[in-house]
Amino acid sequence: MNYKEDNKYLEIVDDILSNDEFKSLKNYKHHGINRYDHCINVSYASYKHAIKHKYKTYKEVTRAAILHDFFLINNQEISIIKRISVLFTHPRTALETSRKYFKLTKLEENIILTHMFPLGIRIPKYKESWLVCWIDDVLSIKERILSIFKKN
Ligand SMILES: [Fe+2]
Ligand SMILES: [Fe+2]
């Protein structure tokens, strides 16, 4: 099912999808697609996994996953050195941007902050953090490969 037809999913992330700053992620390239679509892909896959495995925390998992890359730095406009540093620092930036607009639980904060593990020193604290970290890795690779095929 496409996330756009999944009303239960949309209800959970409705306020995030209608936030103007979040919508502006459509303008940032990310893994060959845009950051808005990447955040939704990670969130929807995490949501489906959490529902399937009966996580009581499925709403937190879904919301933290959509916010995990909520940072407004354009990788196309910065040097390679800065890009490498952003790889390590963007979870903290995403957490700060998310806090500006949304009230986060401790679990949501940890999911956002540790999603780049093993990059960075923060180890995921909860099974939900490991889940989003893993789904982000898998989908990042998938998105990149698909974008290469699309270009050709
Ligand atoms: Fe990230
Ligand atoms: Fe990501």
| Largest sheet report | 2 strands, antiparallel
Q: What coarse outline follows from CA principal-axis ratios?
A: globular
**Kindly, what is the distance between the CA atoms of the first and last residues, rounded to a whole number of angstroms?**
27 Å
Helix content: 55-70%
Q: Specify the structural class.
A: mainly alpha
Percentage of residues in DSSP E strands = under 5%
Give the CATH level 1 class: Mainly Alpha
- Report the order of strands and helices: HHEEHHHHH
How many strands in all? 2
Query: Which second-level CATH architecture applies?
Result: Orthogonal Bundle
Count of individual domains: 1
| CATH superfamily (homologous) name | Hypothetical protein af1432
Q: Strands across the major sheet, in which order?
A: 1-2
The tally of helices reads 7
Mean pLDDT: 95
**Unreliable stretches, pLDDT < 50, 5 or more residues?**
none
Bound molecules: fe (ii) ion
CATH topology: Hypothetical protein af1432
- Radius of gyration equals 15 Å
